[in-house]
Backbone:
């Protein structure tokens, strides 16, 4: 069990200490976990600038924890919020700092703001909004030059409420096939994210999309709870495991120094 999607107070939307996750992992008898602090360069949410992670302090803190908890492998990931115009900046950061892995996540669309915010959906058909979001995901997969994992596909559905708000395969089969094929072609990894909010899906992406990925030959999967507090560490891991075993998948991956390592689930 390796949770690669954890946020701490180095992310703008979490107050949790990194150490609390390490203690949680210890309690579970585990010796590896991965942080993925937010870095959305120059992004605005609800009219306010989002402060990106202070990478220097984040890495230093992770280093201190590694010294204190010798038996714990603390992976240093980063979750970059994709926007085409800030890619040169991310490239610069990647040449400056060493991360164990990079999650490529689409949170905002140019001129439309955060994809899960009510405003993103105002006055438009739900499916048109989802299509815009998925087009953005496809663009991020193709244009982001250097990442390992595609984060939480279906993010736009996370806080939708009501019936039929799932973002699933049948409504966008062609577009999703393009997305999944690009992930496979590029040797990237698909994240199973268990922060599903009110989306109606068991995971993000929805099971139907993960199944399609597997049927297309995709085997590169990672697990992430997207926890913003230690209580959510490994959220619904067993549910994901059961689902994967039923589909004939018995391994997942984590990353050390940008290189994938497989583990049995
Ligand atoms: Zn995210
Ligand atoms: Zn996240």
Residues:
């Amino acid at each position: 069990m390796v949770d690669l999607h954890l946020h701490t107070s180095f992310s703008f939307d979490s107050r949790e200490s990194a150490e609390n996750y390490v203690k949680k992992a210890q309690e579970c008898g585990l010796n590896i976990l991965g942080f993925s602090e937010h870095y959305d360069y120059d992004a605005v949410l609800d009219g306010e600038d989002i402060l990106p992670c202070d990478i220097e302090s984040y890495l230093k803190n992770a280093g201190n924890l590694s010294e204190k908890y010798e038996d714990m492998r603390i992976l240093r990931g980063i979750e970059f919020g994709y926007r085409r115009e800030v890619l040169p900046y991310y490239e610069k950061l990647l040449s400056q700092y060493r991360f164990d892995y990079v999650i490529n996540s689409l949170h905002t669309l140019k001129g439309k703001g955060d994809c899960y915010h009510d405003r993103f959906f105002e006055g438009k058909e739900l499916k048109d909004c989802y299509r815009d979001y998925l087009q953005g995901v496809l663009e991020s997969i193709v244009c982001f030059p250097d990442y390992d994992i595609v984060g939480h596909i279906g993010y736009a559905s996370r806080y939708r409420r009501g019936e039929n708000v799932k973002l699933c395969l049948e409504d966008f089969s062609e577009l999703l096939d393009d997305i999944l094929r690009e992930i496979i072609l590029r040797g990237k990894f698909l994240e199973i994210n268990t922060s599903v909010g009110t989306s109606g899906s068991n995971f993000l992406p929805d099971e139907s999309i993960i199944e399609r990925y597997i049927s297309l030959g995709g085997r590169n999967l990672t697990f992430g709870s997207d926890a913003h507090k230690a209580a959510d560490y490994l959220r619904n891991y067993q549910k994901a495991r059961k689902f994967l075993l039923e589909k004939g998948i018995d391994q997942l991956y984590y990353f050390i120094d940008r290189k994938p390592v497989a583990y049995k689930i």
The two ends are 7 Å apart (CA to CA). The mean pLDDT is 96. The helical segments are 18-27, 55-68, 87-96, 118-121, 126-143, 173-185, 207-215, 237-246.
